[in-house]
């Protein structure tokens, strides 16, 4: 320890910054020089962890005055200390079964804060004068906004924000979330919670500088609106039911893995679809179609396009296997406006060809005007020209 004491304050602070906050605070007991050194550390991490042992938790509480049942007053005290010491990174995860945790107003107007990560029993009641001019990283994990205006104010008060992570699981965030941040480059949204009418849920994203986007909506409902102009986009992962309200003509390659699941999703998401073609696919100059290798599950409800709009259905390189028959039968049975339906076999020496064609003509049709056509794919179509 004598050797450590000979080091400069700057070097000691760098060392302390890499340690857990509870260990940093404990250094105040070492000597007079260390008594206040910990207060100069630029990063403090306040976190109550249910997984900690009782002994570790007791030591944590003794030094930081934060316990399992931390109150708003407890958090406020430590945040004011952090602000007074010009902390640049702040992470607060609190758990409370009874009381919500509110943050002090001084945090919303703190000029030096660069990273803010909040989680769990925290309620964000954002004032009108919110201003976080240095904040670049914001993570909100299962926190709650007091109202929709608080969400709008917080984001508008971060002019340099570059990274935003929002986990809406198990909370009651406002159903309409407007994200309009010109400086934002990385965005991640997780939504696994629904309360009330799904049609009221709306997320609007207007981020022209965005490079990385990750949206996971496990509820598979609500509305997602993306800005039309994101010229710098590098990677986008969107797991959300997107509506193709203007799509009328769809051609799908029937060879990719789980393509029939993609077909179900497209049918459910394209209410005005009129033409559906399942086409041949080309691989190394050879044209082929992929058999459905697992049970096909029909949509949970009959897609709107089948009931009101689909008038043309074609399946090139049809195999006639059990799952394909189920799919064809389902489409013919529910497509009430269908006028033309056609299959073409792809197997050059198909012994079951007469049976397949006969079975094709025997399928029940919802549309009395539907004409059924069938043919064998010409040998010339087996290879890419």
UniProtKB/TrEMBL annotation:
Protein name: BnaA03g10780D protein
Organism for this UniProt entry: Brassica napus (Rape)
Top-level lineage group: Eukaryota
The FBD domain, residue ranges: 304-375
Sequence ranges assigned to domain F-box in this UniProt record: 7-46
Family matches, as InterPro entries: F-box-like_dom_sf, F-box_AtFBL13-like, F-box_dom, FBD, FBL13/AtMIF1-like, LRR_dom_sf, LRR_FXL15/At3g58940/PEG3-like
A Pfam family annotated for this UniProt entry: FBD
PANTHER family given in the database record: EMB|CAB62440.1-RELATED, F-BOX/RNI SUPERFAMILY PROTEIN-RELATED
